[in-house]
Structures are given as structure tokens and as C-alpha cells.
Amino acid sequence: MRVKKVQGNSVKEAMKKATAMYGDEISLIETKNLKGGIFNKSKGWEVVISLPEESEEEIRSKSRNSFQNRLNSSYGGGFDLRIGDDPLEREDDDFTERQIPKVKQKQNSRPSQVRPKQKLKKTENSNEIDLTENAKKILEITRQKKIESGVSDDDFEKRDNSGFPVSNSTRRRENTNQTRNRQQAEQKADNTELNEIRKEMSQLKDTLKLIQNMFWEEKHPNTENKSATSIPPEFSEIYKIAKTSGMNQEHLDLIMKLSIENMPHKMKESSETVKRYFKTILRKMIPVRAESLVQRPNKKIIMFVGSTGVGKTTTIAKLAARFTLEQKISYKVGFLVLDTYKIGALEQLTQYAKMMKLQIDTVASPSDFGAKLENMLQNDYIFIDTMGSSPYDLDKINMLKEFLEQGTYNHDIDIEVTMVLPSSLKYEDLKAGYDSFSALSIDTIIFTKLDETKGFGNIFSLVHEVQKPISYFSVGQEVPEDIIVAKSDYLVNSLLNGFKRNVDGDR
Ligand SMILES: Nc1nc2c(ncn2[C@@H]2O[C@H](COP(=O)(O)OP(=O)(O)OP(=O)(O)O)[C@@H](O)[C@H]2O)c(=O)[nH]1
Ligand SMILES: [Mg+2]
User: Closest ligand 1 atom, CA of 345?
Assistant: First the structure.
């Protein structure tokens, strides 16, 4: 394989030059951006191409031989053309008419180089062969053929490697091959150029993001921590997303620091890889609890606590449907309602119990709680609905505590406490709510109203701070479908890419 280098202002231009210099059958091997100078600006492109298998000398020789063979077959052989008949040296395509007189001229001036090897057929009137005359005849015949076959001048003047016109079918085949080769080479060149452009665009995008985010920082002068301005451009997009997600600033700074310090160098190259790494870190920082179904004859008792209107009763109804209707085993679920203070509170759950044919009971005082629970132990799951209370209403929270203490009186089944929190609250409010209810020894958290939320950084920060696992996400008002088992991936995706209710496999 012969390899050549050709330069131009663009890859396309260099390829055009190369095609002009070496023909259509060249193949592109590689392209190189010729950079240099103070700003390392591009000074053009260099293409490395391979020539067809035949060397230049072979092409020349083939050309000579073919020309010679034709002469020999036409005139009985005996010609040896060696000088001045090289088609690669000619300026234009008009080979037939220019070469033949040239042969004669050379024959005259340098007889040793163009010499008859054997006796030539003689013309009727002359002992010497008149090449000029014969060439004219050949030309005449070919012109005649051209007229007969209706081939255009341009078409007709095309020559094979030896410089002679080629047949229509051969020409078409060659044309197709050449066109294909040229298209492939151009395609390859275009792809390489496109990839380079894409890479540069991506770098530009990152820089642009940095500039945008710097403006964004300017608009938020209250930001105490100025670490954002010192972050590399590739991190600026992720920083902005995380910050606007409602994530606690301390958490954000810590994650950014960890990411910048520990991220493998290769991954820092683009905002996409930074985002992937950041996602992995976030995922690892979110504690979730996988759903484990109860193994009969074991039981599970769960008390749902939280502020007024956060979605406790609705979530209980959704979970009851999940365990009774959606599992391989149809579990038995019972409701025990502590929520007797609010008018109509019992009605809401009674409706669901009727629909699903579930046991339901109420309890008003902590002293009755143990006995009521014992009465429900034929169920696999017992869900305890509680009255909603303000996080600042400590009396109500203390009352719940009393219930819990009395609840285990006659059996040894633990009562799991699940705190229901709406994801629409900002981090500080979530934290305050959690702190108030933490006297109840919370085991897991269910976040509701994800469908009404934009940021999700608040959820991340809370669970990261309190280190309690999330068990479910409630993603709408519909019972039973709007509940999904908590997965860290789901939360991270919502945080970075926005909320999507339907994620396959999460239910
Ligand atoms: N958009 C949306 N609304 C929800 C979601 N979960 C519950 N809700 C709605 O929130 C409102 C309150 O829900 P409840 O289940 O009654 O809340 P609660 O915590 O039991 O309220 P109290 O018993 O008064 O403390 C209802 O209108 C529900 O339909 C959710 O995930 N998304
Ligand atoms: Mg309720």
C-alpha cells in the first residue's frame, strides 16, 4: 500500500486535492487537524490517503503496455514505447491525438528508443509505417463509433488506465466503482470532520454553561458559599441543577467536593460524564428500603404518622390494595384507626375497607390499643392510621407515643413507624417535621406528592441527613396505582432530569 499526505484548509479540500493528484481510487486513512501558534488555532487539515495497489510506476507501465499492445495488435507488433508516452505526465485528457505524433517525432530524433522489433506491415505506397496516418484513422473510426452510439463528447473522451477510450459497460462499472470509492472516502472524511465538530461543540456547550451559570450565581448574591465560581465548567451544569433542586447547600458543597476530587480524570472531560459520575454518588447517598413481603405466619404492623393532610390515609389505602390485590399471595390486611378526632376521618378509610373487604376498627385511647391490635392479628398486615397533627403540636405527638408504648402490651410484634412527608415542602420544613416526630422512633419514610414537586433535592438532603430509608413514593391521588417502591435511581433521575410518573418496573 502506498501512503500519501495532502493538506488543505478543510478535510474536504484536502481530499479534493488528493483526488485530483492521485485519482478516484484513493482511500482515506486518517485526518489530522494541523494546530499551532499561541492560541493553538487550526492551520488546516492533513489527510493521509492510500493509493490503489498499483504503484505509480505500474500505472505508467500498464499505460505504456496497453498502448503498446493496441499498437502491436493493430500493426502486427514491433513497437517499444518508452519515452514521452506517460499518461500521468500529460496536462490534459487529449491523449490519443497528442501521443501518436509524439511517438513519430521521437522515432525520428531518437531512433534507438522507438524502434521496430520486427518487420512491420507496410502500407501500399510506402515501405515505412506512417503512424500519424494510422493514428488519424483510429481517431476517425472511434469518432464514427461515437456518433453511431450517441455517446456524448464528455463521456466518450474518458480513457482507461492506458489512455484509451473504454467500452460503455466497462466505463459504467468503473464509474460506479469510482463514484462509490469517492463517496466512501468523502463520507469517511465528512464523518471525521463531523466528530471533530461535535467534540468542539460539546466543549463550547460546557463553556457556555459555565458562563450562564456564572450569571446565575450573580443573580443570587445571597449565596454565602462562593465555591460555585471555582468549579470547573464541566461541573457547572450539574451544580446548577442540584442547587435549584432544593438540596441543602452543605450537602451540595460536600458532593461537589467529593466529585471533583475523586472523579477519574478521564470522566472530567465532558458534562455528560460528570453527570453520570455525580448520579452514581447521589445514588449511593440515598438510603432506600426494598419491599419485603411478610412471610406467614409472621405479621407486620405499621403505624403511619405525619402532619395533617400529607396523604397518610390515601397511602394506607394504596398499600392495602397492593398487598391484597397485586401480589401472588392475597394477603389479609386490616385497618386500625386512631384518627377519631376529625369528623369524617373514619369514613374515608371505611369506604376503602368496604371496597376491598377488609377488617377495620377504631381505637380512641392508648389503653385500648393493645387489645384492639390483638383482635386484628388474623391479618398479615395491620395498618394504623393516625390523626394528623402539626409538627409543633407536641401534645398530639406525645399521645401517639403513648399508643405505641401500650400497643405491644399483649404481643411481641414490633410496631414499625413510617413517617409520611410531602415532597413539596422545602428541606428546612421537612427537617423540622421529621425532628418533631422523631420522638416516635421512625423506621422508614414515605414521600408523597412527588407529582406536585419540582426539585427533589430536598428529599435527598433529608434522607441523607437523618439516614432513614425511604420505603415508597406516592406519585398522585389515584388509589391504588399512584404508589411505587422507593428506588434511589428513581429519585436521582427525578432530581436531575425531572419527574416522570411512569417508570417501568418500579411498581
Ligand atoms: N397530588 C397528590 N395528592 C395526594 C397524594 N397523596 C395524597 N394526596 C391528596 O392529599 C389529600 C390529603 O390526603 P389524606 O390521605 O387525606 O391525608 P392525611 O395525611 O390522611 O390527612 P389527615 O388525615 O387530615 O391528617 C387528599 O386530597 C389526597 O388525595 C399524592 O401523592 N399526590
Ligand atoms: Mg387521614
Answer: 23
Name the nearest CA neighbour of 316 among 501, 471, 487. Answer: 471
345 CA distance to ligand 1 centroid (A)? 12
- The yes-or-no verdict on residue 142 having pLDDT over 90 is no
> Domain locations in the chain?
57-166, 220-285, 300-497
Q: Which residue do the cell numbers 448574591 mark?
A: 221
> Per-residue pLDDT for 75 more than 80?
no
Residue 268 exposed, middle or buried by CB count within 10 Å (0-12, 13-18, 19+)? middle
- CATH architecture assigned to 300-497: 3-Layer(aba) Sandwich (3.40)
What backbone torsions phi and psi does residue 40 show, to the nearest 5 degrees?
A: 55, 45
| For residue 438, pLDDT beyond 70 | yes
User: Is the distance from the beta carbon of residue 316 to the nearest atom of ligand 1 less than 6 Å?
Assistant: no
Q: Are 103 and 85 in contact (CB under 8 A)?
A: yes
In this predicted structure, the answer to whether residue 119 has a pLDDT above a threshold of 60 is no
Whole-angstrom Cα distance, residue 232 to residue 505?
A: 36
421: pLDDT strictly greater than 60: yes
* Sign, CA torsion 450/454/456/461: negative
Question: Distance, CA 388 to ligand 2 centroid (Å)?
Answer: 7
* Maximum mean pLDDT: which of 152-156, 185-189, 326-330, 416-420: 416-420
